[in-house]
Amino acid sequence: MEGRLLLGLGQPEDAIKFLVRQTREPVDPDVILARDQAAREARRVRGSLLAPEVTPPPPESQSHWEAVKARPLFQRLFSGITPTLALITIAPLIPVQPHVHFGYAIERVRPAVPDFSACLELCVPSQPGTVDYWGGVTPDDHGSVSVTIGTRDLNLGIVEATFAPETLTATFRFGRTAVFSQVVRYHDRYYLKDGTHRAVGLLAQGVQTMPVLLWDAHDTTDLPDYLPPGTLLGAAPPRLADFLDPALFYPHAWVSRMRLLRMRVDDYLAPLDQSDSTTGGTDQG
Question: What is the mean pLDDT of residues 260-285?
Answer without folding.
Answer: 68
